[in-house]
């Protein structure tokens, strides 16, 4: 199936989750994330959930990062670019572009400081190709890195066999973490 077809299917599937199901599935994702060998890294970039899109609740993940004394950056859209906003534990958020929560107070940090990126997605395939909302923000942003960070997709759904219209601008995941387990795309 194409990205457009998959986008429609998985937006619909996600829309059927209750808030309790989202919290439970999100907690399962966090528990599986804790099993990855990533916790020696220092700087983590984490997307924040668009609640109206029934996205994974990443606020407990952000809390886990702070509890483990990690530096935390979240995305902010500036024109067509994504920037790293390092935040502190007590930060307050406001609705930004596309209703993405954005920090009211932050420090911009360079891409090269980021070790791990937690990426939003609707679905991915067994090769690590992901389908997002179609804006290309993360693909453009990740293509700017000289030394790419570890890319971890967080998803409610297990990978499908194939996305038929992958192109050269798509940046593949290193891992996908779901409530059901961890999938590695490393060769």
List the helices and strands and how they pair.
Blueprint: H1 3-15, H2 19-33, E1 43-46, H3 59-67, E2 71-78, E3 81-87, E4 93-95, E5 101-103, E6 107-109, E7 116-119, E8 123-124, E9 130-131, H4 137-143, E10 150-154, E11 175-178, E12 181-184
Parallel strand pairs: 1-2, 1-7, 7-10, 10-11
Antiparallel strand pairs: 2-3, 3-6, 4-5, 8-9, 11-12
Would you kindly provide a written description of the structure presented here, covering whatever features stand out?
It contains four helices and twelve strands, in the order H-H-E-H-E-E-E-E-E-E-E-E-H-E-E-E. It is α/β, with parallel strands linked by helices and 187 residues long. The chain has a single domain, classed as 3-Layer(aba) Sandwich (Rossmann fold). Strands 6-3-2-1-7-10-11-12 form an eight-stranded mixed sheet. The longest helix has 15 residues, at 19-33. The chain is globular. The protein starts with a helix and ends with a strand.
Please provide a brief summary of the model:
This protein has four helices and twelve strands.
